[in-house]
Write a structure and sequence with these properties.
Layout: H1 2-13, H2 32-46, H3 49-54, E1 55-56, H4 60-75, H5 79-84, H6 86-98, H7 103-125, E2 153-154, H8 203-213, H9 216-223, H10 232-245, H11 255-260, H12 280-285, H13 299-317, H14 320-329, H15 331-341, H16 346-349, H17 355-372
Antiparallel strand pairs: 1-2
Helix pairs in contact: 1-2, 1-6, 2-4, 6-7, 7-8, 9-17, 10-13, 13-14, 14-15, 14-17
Length: 379
């Protein structure tokens, strides 16, 4: 048993020399100090002495520099930026799975890993130097990816390496020279400069990639063999009842699969909680209390609030696709896009929305098609 724990931890920590520059983490709710302490405790308890002499677990600051670019890419406009972070997202997921305290965050990331992988798939299907972007077609079997490498940083950090896109392999630290202070008390070295951005691909390539990741049939192909989350079965009857009571099509409950994989305890690092991922302010607007108990963690209350909010958004925008887009990126962003373009539908404004939102809506449409055999357009 102990050997399995050690090998699992080593598989989860060795790949995390953090090349990204330090990023703002103050807005995030994830307790990275807790993650760092848990990781170091596992190393201290189970790793062989030779390993402990050379390596330590990443600090909270280093973890922040690793994770925050994932959220930034999701909130950004670029499919290429999401694709560049796909490997880091895959590595982050087993790290979050390592600690019981971060399982809820792992479920949040797992529900969004599709966006990174779809963007990565698009950049492979439509390379920068393609003479003319190919027609959109359902994807071929996924591009193989290397197994995730675990996150650990050398005990005494080496000189800053030349930055690369992928996390570098951990480099053993030089042998400590007594009476040097313990590694854990040393401040981390300044982060290396960010690698230069690649020139943007040609506009025709960007357009083709956007069309690829926004195509509902591509999403249907990607999700066709995915089983229904195990938690969904027990929840669906009550969730559908809550949506019907609010006057919202019951098929929209599958939004919860895209938001949280039907985990009522799912948490985003930014502070969204529950089946339908309510931020604190929106939760309170929908009548959910945050104290003394957080009602966002109550699956049925969370679902009722989501149905109420979707009903309001549909009332404002008159379209379920626009309502879902507003749920994801904010009704102000959708309203501004409609004003700026003079558009009336999601298809009219999708190019003015964040990359995640442009994939979020067709992903939910694909889930409704696969789980209920109905079209979002007909609801």
């Amino acid at each position: 048993m102990k050997g399995r724990v050690v090998s699992g931890m080593v598989a989860g920590v060795l790949g995390m020399l953090l090349p990204a520059p330090a990023a703002v983490w103050d807005e995030w709710e994830l307790d990275l100090s807790q993650v760092s302490e848990a990781g170091q405790e596992i190393i201290d308890r189970f790793a062989p002495e030779s390993f402990r002499e050379k390596y330590r677990f990443a600090t909270a600051e280093e973890l922040g520099a690793y994770f925050s670019p994932l959220q930034q890419a999701l909130a950004g406009d670029s499919v290429e930026d999401l694709a560049a972070m796909a490997g880091q997202a895959r590595q982050a997921l087993p790290l979050l799975r390592e600690s019981p305290q971060t399982q809820a965050y792992a479920d949040w990331l797992e529900a969004r890993l599709d966006y990174f992988e779809m963007a990565d798939e698009a950049t492979h299907a439509i390379p920068d130097d393609a003479p003319s972007p190919p027609d959109i077609a359902p994807p071929t079997p996924g591009i193989p990816t290397p197994p995730p490498q675990p996150p650990v940083v050398p005990a005494t950090p080496p000189p800053a390496p030349t930055p690369t896109v992928a996390p570098p392999r951990p480099v053993p630290a030089p042998a400590p020279t007594p009476p040097a202070a313990p590694v854990a008390t040393r401040p981390p070295p300044p982060p290396p400069p960010a690698p230069p951005r690649r020139p943007p691909p040609p506009p025709a390539t960007v357009k083709a990639r956007n069309s690829y990741v926004e195509n509902q049939q591509v999403w249907v192909s990607k999700l066709a063999n995915r089983p229904v989350p195990a938690r969904a079965g027990a929840l669906l009857p009550d969730l559908k009842s809550a949506f019907r009571a609010a006057g919202v099509p019951e098929q929209l409950v599958w939004q919860a699969e895209a938001e949280s994989s039907f985990n009522p305890a799912a948490r985003s690092p930014a502070g969204a909680v529950g089946l339908f991922q309510f931020m604190p302010a929106t939760a309170q607007q929908m009548g959910l209390r945050l104290a003394p108990e957080d009602e966002r963690l109550d699956a049925i209350k969370n679902a009722r609030a989501a149905a109420t909010y979707l009903k309001q958004l549909h009332g404002r925008f008159g379209d379920w696709q626009l309502a879902l887009a507003a749920y994801n990126c904010g009704e102000g962003r959708v309203a501004q896009a409609l004003r700026n373009t003079g558009g009336k539908t999601f298809d009219d404004i999708h190019h003015n929305l964040p990359a995640e939102t442009r994939m979020y809506v067709p992903k939910i449409a694909a889930l409704i098609h696969l789980r209920e055999n109905v079209s979002l357009d007909t609801l």
